[in-house]
Amino acid sequence: MSLISVQEARENADKFSLSSDEMLNEVANAISANSKLGKTEIVVAFLSKVVDQSELNFVEKSLKEKGYSVNSSNIEDKIYIKVNY
Going by DSSP bridges, is the β-strand pair 78-84/69-75 parallel, antiparallel, or unpaired? Predict the structure, then answer.
């Protein structure tokens, strides 16, 4: 096993960001899994520093266009996306 340096780990973390496709994929997986358990609501959390507001807006718009009820909130260092169906 090759362990990266602390500096390299920090640089990787600073460069990381989530695309709207990645966020939609996470939400879709959560909806699929939870709906099979009889749930009609999910909440997905992402670190605020890796989410661009325009990407989040696109995710919310895409879900609403498909008929989902969507609310997002920013609490401390996380963005929570709540989806009802």
Answer: antiparallel
